[in-house]
Design a protein that fits this description.
2 copies of one chain form a homodimer. In chain A, the strands form 3 sheets. In chain A, strands 3, 4, 5, 6, 7, 10 and 11 form a 7-stranded mixed beta sheet that branches. In chain A, strands 1-2 form a two-stranded antiparallel ribbon. Chain A is globular, with a radius of gyration of 24 Å. Chain A is an alpha+beta fold. Chain A folds into 4 domains: about 140 residues, Acyl-CoA dehydrogenase/oxidase, N-terminal domain (Butyryl-Coa Dehydrogenase, subunit A, domain 1), CATH 1.10.540.10; about 120 residues, Butyryl-CoA Dehydrogenase, subunit A, domain 2 (Beta Barrel), CATH 2.40.110; about 160 residues, Butyryl-CoA Dehydrogenase, subunit A, domain 3 (Up-down Bundle), CATH 1.20.140; about 130 residues. In chain A, strand 4 and strand 5 form a beta hairpin. Chain A is built from 20 helices and 11 strands. In chain A, helix 13 packs across helix 16 and helix 16 runs antiparallel to helix 18. Chains A and B meet through helix 10, helix 11, helix 12, helix 13 and helix 16 of A and helix 10, helix 11, helix 12, helix 13 and helix 16 of B. Chains A, B: Its cofactor is FAD.
């Protein structure tokens, strides 16, 4: 039943009609080559590759998983050939500088490509996906020699890359990192320690794997201020990228996971592996966090991807599976029963998935324009511009990552639910989507970590609510002209205006509560994040509805009219059937921290 | 990390202090033997069996799964021995009539036993669990000869039983059942057809398996009024229960499922298998639904079971795993970091699980008293009493089954979330709980089916809201004395009173809307069910809080005081942090059906 079709019509709507990407690219330093024709050609080619090469490997790859034997990892059948096509197509270099073999296109285009690849086959997309952080780190912090040494092969996709942070005793709390880096006297270091949960840490798709590793120099300060960053390749690399001897980093095992089993999650043992310091000593954590915002948007995409794939699978089944009759009378009298798509509760589930997939897509494409500006500034060496745009983006990323991955998981579970008992068996692929989607709220910082970052850092500490005031000002601009209008437009405008006020008031109240009780931040954070997500998605649905209404007014052929009508109807669904959840989160976010903390730990066991 | 301990303290609190089971059993015809001492001894013995025999097989059984070869199913290692102990302990007969070898104790005791078995090892518990429907059907509809033939072995647990409803083309819509029953002239029938998703349909735990099969007689009316019920044993049974020849029912395969892989889900092919008609011709569906209410409570228990197990696993980890520091200052300064149980968001997750597990337990033990009365009437041949109690119970079952399984799934997912990335790998068992919990909202009628049963049948059609008026009257009785009180007691009382009014008003509004648009029932049903669940659980938490407060006032030792304090604190948590979700469901239930149905099916694909 799973038969991924890239939603190009919707992607173009969001790019061109909602966010005016053509104008955005024209204004962007790095965007001059991203003409509408080029963009279109890239989207079409990526769609074909995803639909024809990656999607057919989704269920089989998940079923087979990766194989581990004596330190070597074999990816599932078909992955090597599909990856070779990926390299051949030059897909890895899409948004990297031409100086290192990339195509120099804006990073947003890479995110769109990632969305399609991830929807077609999330586990596969993680292999090239993990390299991106490695490449960005070397671009930003490496010397020109390092760049020449590593980037051409990484940008071509011939080598893979990883980020090695987590250790058995610590994930979110990197202050506890123990891996040691011992200077060898020749400028290089011997790296010793164990890293776990390293996605793409070992596999058979590339000739070399370049690890970016967090480790401590001798006598480095304890905690986060004593962590440095090292490049540790699987095979040592000579001048011009020639492969040398095997380095002392070995895969001890791969994890047996609930899902994404085609993605190898490695335990890596560094036994005095040769590494090179990159960036300043003891400032590794800052460097590591430089591109965290884009990495997190990359994970937010997983929410959209799995909502989209689960929606496509569930819709097809709902149109085919027949059960009972509509309560208002037979819809398909010639059939033994009506297709379940006629039952309102099945519609509720399908529209929830659709609203999440399309609403999430709009949220990501909006934020991707900020990412474009941030990278353009970074590669142009404009530190101030980079910081400004990174700050703007920083407000969006925890909301996108936290909220969209939670919603993606819900949408994936609804996909199973539409299938009834058939959703629970492997055959249809729906349960695989739910298992694959489950990781998204855990890695790249759990929802709880995103929420602390949002409320504690971004909103309270760094901007004292300014980021919320800025965003809600945008909401007001969108809402104001419609406040007195009738029908859907007026209802949405008034709902949006009310939420804009409510969001600011909520933020202010939490600011005051947090002053009185520092534990309030953690007590409110996840409900606050979910509240922000629902309201931010409401803004994006109102924006899409506005554009759809304009398009309908300007006259459309019947096929386009149906598309725009569906946009308006999905927007209405969102405001009536999903946005009300924000009220519950609003109220729960304001509950006192004491309720959570008053119970003695010993009494919790009952 | 999973190390199940039966929550006997809480079970006794709910039984004895909240619902006064001793008095209930004294009043019950079948309850005279269920003295407090007997009940206690049974609970202790069941707890020991579950903790020591079943729990250790949970992760290994899930990992290994069932094996299928040439029509035979082998259960995972250890299951046979564990099942032998189950039979030896006489556990299957606990609540069945002594005339057939049972112990004649109230059915509620069996539900408590099932809760412990299901928490320790849900997949295992399904083997004896599925027999119960088969036994009840034969007890109620079989002739005395059939009872003598089948019941002693089934009640002893030496044979297993199943219910064979689902076919490839139909699950919920049994009108589409195609399996044929051809009279053989000697009073028996040849059954031909394919049944799927048959839990315990084939396995190696018992000498025989007795299938209760839905099939059609020749020239039976189309639809649900042409379905009859047949007993089709795997091995034919002679007088006195002697095993005869192998019947023509064979297992074609077992399903590869997302979870509960230790439970065999069989495809059964009936190729002219010999069957006996049980009950009246063409009235099989009614007979099948007779004990649907108890079967659904049995599935509702899965929500409590997985919430409890996930809570126990997550709490243990949260006390051990160290990450970062509490925002109000170090809690464990001598350690490298604080245990994550100190972080308010981790508390929020743990308390959510605890509130679901304990609140759900109370809901089930309350309903179980109605089940006791229903069965006592049924076995005493009191049709009027049976119908009255079954009607009362019928209001609770869709709420318990629908709401508690959804909440159990949430609690299981929170268990993984507390573990962070470690929750996603198989090792700790947490992801297995989430996979196992996922089936509960699908089988025995999906959440959507429960919701239609609740709003469409129970509330609107059968009682015109009387069941809601009856339950909310109970809420008023509990709330009234506290309405003017200060503190938690007053807040809970006022919240409860407000919800009692709101629930009735919501029901009335939906009744009116449904008259104007029959599709409104399906459009509102799931949100209505969830609303009912949150409010009903609020009543149970208020009830538990009241009892805990009384106990504290009457003076308690420090250990008991901590238990009762924790009850009050969890009740407070429930009212502040979970009950507000009812508002969102309230509003979403009132949204018009047109929003769901206005989009043309062709436009849904985008």
């Amino acid at each position: 039943m799973l038969n991924y079709k890239a939603p190009l019509r919707d992607m173009r709507f969001v790019m061109n009609e909602v966010f005016d990407y053509p104008a955005h690219y024209r204004a962007l330093g790095s965007g001059e080559d991203a003409s509408p024709e080029v963009v279109d050609a890239i989207l079409e080619a990526a769609a074909t590759y995803c639909e024809e090469v990656l999607a057919p490997l989704y269920v089989s790859g998940g079923e087979e998983g990766c194989h581990f034997q004596a330190g070597e990892v074999t990816t599932p059948k078909g992955f090597k050939a599909a990856y070779a096509q990926f390299v051949e197509g030059g897909w890895q270099g899409l948004s990297f500088p031409t100086a290192y073999g990339g195509q120099g296109l804006p990073v947003s285009l890479n995110l769109l490509k990632s969305e399609m690849m991830g929807t077609a086959n999330w586990a596969f997309s993680m292999y090239p996906g993990l390299s991106i952080g490695c490449i960005n780190t070397i671009l930003q912090y490496g010397t020109e020699a390092m760049r020449q040494q590593y980037l051409p092969k990484l940008v071509a996709g011939e080598w893979g890359g990883t980020m090695c942070l987590t250790e058995p005793q610590c994930g979110s709390d990197l202050a506890q990192v123990k891996t040691q880096a011992k200077p060898l006297g020749d400028g290089s270091y011997a790296i010793t320690g164990t890293k776990i949960f390293i996605s793409s840490g070992e596999h058979d798709l590339t000739d070399n794997i370049v690890h970016i590793v967090l480790a401590r120099l001798p006598e480095a300060p304890a905690g986060t201020r004593g962590i440095s960053l090292f490049i540790v390749p699987k095979f040592l690399v000579g001048e011009g990228g020639a492969l040398g001897t095997r380095n002392a980093v070995h895969c001890g095992s791969i994890e047996h996971k609930m899902g994404i089993s085609a993605s190898a999650t490695a335990v890596l043992n560094f036994d005095g592996a040769i590494g090179t310091l990159i960036g300043e000593p003891n400032k590794g954590l800052e460097a590591m966090f430089t591109f965290m915002n884009t990495a997190r948007i990359g994970t937010a995409i997983q929410g959209v991807a799995h909502a989209e794939l689960a929606y496509q699978g569930a819709l097809a089944y709902a149109c085919e599976r027949r059960s009972m009759r509509a309560l208002s009378g037979k819809k398909e009298p010639e059939q033994v029963a009506d297709a379940i798509v006629w039952h309102p509760d099945v519609r509720r589930m399908l529209l929830t998935q659709k609203a999440i997939a399309e609403g999430g897509r709009a949220m990501i494409y909006g934020a991707a324009q900020l990412a474009d500006k941030m990278f353009a500034a970074a590669w142009a060496g404009d530190q101030a511009g980079y910081k400004r745009h990174d700050g703007e983006l920083g407000f969006f990323t925890p909301i996108l990552k936290g909220f969209l991955t939670e919603m993606g998981l819900e949408a994936a579970n609804l996909g199973m639910q539409v299938y009834g008992g058939h959703g629970y068996i492997r055959e249809h692929g729906m349960e695989q989507i739910a298992r694959d989607a489950r990781i998204a709220t855990l890695y790249e910082g759990t929802t709880g970590i995103q929420a602390l970052d949002l409320l504690g850092r971004k909103v309270l500490l760094q901007t004292r609510g300014q980021c919320v005031r800025d965003f809600t000002a945008q909401m007001w601009v969108l809402a104001r002209p419609g406040l007195l209008a009738g029908g859907l437009r007026g209802r949405m405008a008034r709902a949006l205006a009310r939420r804009a006020v409510q969001w600011n008031t909520l933020t202010l109240r939490l600011m005051l509560k947090a002053k009185a009780d520092p534990e309030q931040v953690g007590a409110s954070s996840v409900d606050y994040l979910m509240y922000c997500g629902y309201v931010m998605m409401a803004y994006h649905w109102a924006l899409m509805a506005q554009r759809a209404e304009q398009a309908l007014h300007s006259g459309q052929g019947p096929e386009s009219a149906a598309f725009y009508q569906a946009k308006l109807q999905t927007a209405q669904f969102y405001f009536e059937r999903l946005l009300p959840r924000a009220d519950a989160h609003h109220r729960m976010a304001l509950a006192p921290a004491s309720t959570l903390l008053q119970m003695p730990v010993a009494a919790m066991a009952g």
